């Protein structure tokens, strides 16, 4: 999932015009912001003893 979030960034290797660059940035930002929500679900689901930090 994380790979697909940043996959549009590879389009910058082709040195796109401004319009395409903005589209690539929007797609990348959308994918990354979606992953923030998925990360929260993961942290909420995993038992605290397996997370690797102390939540005191």
How is this structure best described in words?
The chain contains three helices and no strands. It has helices at about 1-5, 20-45, 50. The two termini are about 30 Å apart.
Secondary structure: elements and pairs:
Layout: H1 2-6, H2 18-45, H3 48-51
Features:
56 residues, mainly alpha, 3 helices
Shape label: elongated
How would you classify the quaternary structure? single chain
Mean pLDDT: 85
Contiguous helical run count = 3
Spatial separation of the terminal alpha carbons: 31 Å
Topology order in helix (H) and strand (E) letters: HHH
In total, the number of strands is 0
Q: What proportion of the residues form beta strands (DSSP E)?
A: under 5%
Class from secondary-structure proportions: mainly alpha
Radius of gyration: 16 Å
**Which percent range fits the helix content?**
55-70%
- Report on the biggest sheet: none
Regions with pLDDT < 50 over 5+ consecutive residues? none
